[in-house]
Amino acid sequence: MSRTTIKDVAAEAGVSLGTASRALSGNGSIAAPTRERVLAAARRLNFVPNAQAGSLRSERTRTIGLLIPDIRNPFFAELAHVVERRARSEGLSVMLCSADEDPQQMHDYATVLRRQRVDGIIVAPFSTARDSLRELQGSGTPLVFLDRTIPGMGVPAVVSDTRDAIADAVRYLVDQGAHRIGYISGPSETTTGVERLAEFRAAAAASGVDIEIAHGDFQEHSGRLGMRSLLARGVDGVLASDSLMTIGAFKECRAAGVKPVQDLPFVGFDDIAPFALLQPSLPLICQDLHSMGTAAVQMLLTQLAGVTSSQELRLEAHLKLPSGSEADSAQPIDPHHHES
Asked: Do 45 and 4 form a contact (C-beta atoms < 8 A)?
């Protein structure tokens, strides 16, 4: 059986060979309806363009894209390390792109990866990047969502299930004497930001405590600002919902003369290496980074083998308390003692 060529795609779509080539390469001069007609023809014929030429992709580039929100975030840095090691074990190279928690930058990098003809892409998406990711999906590029998802796209995903861990964190704060718990949330453009906030609200309601919300953006500075705001509002317990905001909140406590854990019951997020240096040690909601990264690569390999899927794998997170008596001896802060 002869191999499908770009000429076949052009004939199927009813366009010239040059138009088909430009449409498949992502050339912006091609009108959207024409591009979609060419891409649809390519899908019907099971044609995928070559990375170096405009003909059949009989051999893959053996390169995948990894598009993460922020390489400065130790959580994503470690996750990228896991993905790269697993991919290399399969003979794949990884092209890493960091969006700096900027939806427009994520859109730009998604375009770059598509034009580079990577075999597939693992991405931790923003909901506001839906259109650019749909373009990738429409071009036939295999996608896997990691850590975050976009509902309704039907893309296979590996995420953490944090509901029980957040409930345990709230109960821990209550056991430490907290009655008014502050929460530093992530951005509403991410499923992690939205879902964790909802899980916190539900856990707080079940425990019958008052809450205060400080809205952050998964950046260290917003952790500082969030903690400053929560201290001013008189909270007596705090949960920060990601690693960078945990670092920022910890620093703000120190600047305000508040000893986190000892003076103010405090739970952070992610068991990353820098937290091992903090004193006192923090109670942490821990995600299984190794299993997440490994599973994401395996999902992509499955798609590259021609098996389509919309599976969502949810890996359970857990609350890790400090060893010894640090957590047990923590005392709640007097909300009227410290002013922001």
From this structure: yes
Distance CA 290, CA 78 (A): 9
Q: Is the dihedral of CA 206, 212, 216, 219 positive or negative?
A: negative
User: What is the rounded distance in angstroms from the CA atom of residue 27 to the CA atom of residue 139?
Assistant: 13
| φ and ψ of 273, to 5 deg | -55, -40
Cβ(68)–Cβ(79) below 8 Å: yes
The tokens of 19 are what?
């138009």
Q: What residues contact residue 175 under an 8 Å CB cut-off, 6+ apart?
A: none
* Size (the chain), residues: 340
In the structure encoding, which two tokens stand for residue 172, read together?
Answer: 């821990």
- Of 102, 122, 59, 108, the C-alpha closest to 218 is 102
Q: Tokens 């950046």 map to which residue?
A: 219
Half-sphere exposure of 187 (CA within 13 A, CB side): 15
Gyration radius of the chain over CA positions: 23
Per DSSP, the three-state class of 339 is coil
Beta pairing partners, 2 = none
pLDDT, one tens digit for every residue, the chain (340 residues)? 456 778 888 899 998 877 887 777 665 567 878 888 888 888 888 775 554 443 334 457 899 999 999 999 999 999 999 999 999 999 999 999 999 888 888 888 988 888 888 999 999 998 888 888 888 888 888 999 999 999 999 999 999 999 999 999 999 999 999 999 999 999 998 999 999 999 999 999 999 999 999 999 999 999 999 999 999 999 999 999 999 999 999 999 999 999 999 999 999 999 988 888 877 789 999 999 999 999 999 999 998 888 877 889 999 999 999 875 344 433 333 433 333 3
Name the one residue in this structure whose structure tokens are 């021609």: 306
Three-class secondary structure of residue 122 per DSSP: strand
If residue 21 lies in a helix (H) or strand (E), which one and from where to where? Answer: helix 17-24
Q: Is 71 left (phi over 0), alpha (psi -120 to 50) or beta?
A: alpha
> Under DSSP, is residue 290 helix (H, G, I), strand (E, B) or coil?
helix
